[in-house]
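User: Predict the complex with manganese (II) ion.
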Amino acid sequence: MREDWHKRFAESSDCLKSARRRQTIVPVLDLEIGGDEFVTMAGPCSVETEFQLMATANHVRRAGARILRGGAFKPRSSPYAFQGLGLDGLKMLARAREESGLAIVTEAMSEDDVPLVAEYADILQIGARSMENYSLLEAAARSGRPVLLKRGLTATISEWLGSAQVILDAGNPNVILCERGIRTFETATRNTFDVGAIALLKQISHLPVIADPSHAAGRRELVPALARIAVAAGADGLLVEVHPYPEKAWSDGDQSLSFAEFDAMMEDLDPYLSLRELEAGRRRRAVPMRDAVDVRPMEAVG
Ligand code: PEP
Ligand code: MN
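Assistant: Here is the predicted structure with manganese (II) ion placed in the model:
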């Protein structure tokens, strides 16, 4: 890694790769995030009804997702929009885990909600609007659950890693970074998907990086292409919004995939995931060779 990255991100140095730490692997139930497997997290933006959640959980599991997403506490741009079912939503998520075997990722919006959300969730999501809420980050870290840290709407990579460092400093090593698009001058898409950030973080950070093409695009027809780009950029997984009837969703319907669209996206990802596997194999074989060159004794050279 180039020395100037160390200087630029000196305040979040524990997030950076080192000889001691090349990759963090976050264990979640029987899964590993940041390891060999590309992990897809899918589900509705908000938990709405028992039927909506169970149907989605069963469907996305059959299509290859390993983690169910769904918000019970919802940060909304409008104070009049649906704010989530709260505890009832968490209980539905727990039932969906029981029925489907999928792990659960869901958002904690305030420090006070963390103990309750941590009781039901396998991964705590910190939303984009909360990325700089340091008391929430510390409470989430102390819960002991892995933390999926979304990038703030206008956060630089440095600010984002600063928030990750707060969680690491609070004693929780299981941080997962999530690129969900940032606000730029472009308004045709909901946000601008910063794929360069994914590529950079995979080079300099040992933390797993997940891509959220749904909030980046804001339009369901763009989601599959952004998902493929995320794989090519080196992401460790996806966070995707899926709904049985996207046009009737209580939040983020425009960017939610129908079941058929989710199936098609997953199928179209296959060749990209095969390439990813090939590349990982090549990298694994290359490491011992490079090490062998590095440790070659002087007398053997030339
Ligand atoms: C969400 O995942 O539904 C969400 C609110 O995301 P973000 O915090 O990235 O806007
Ligand atoms: Mn959403």
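The mean pLDDT is 94.
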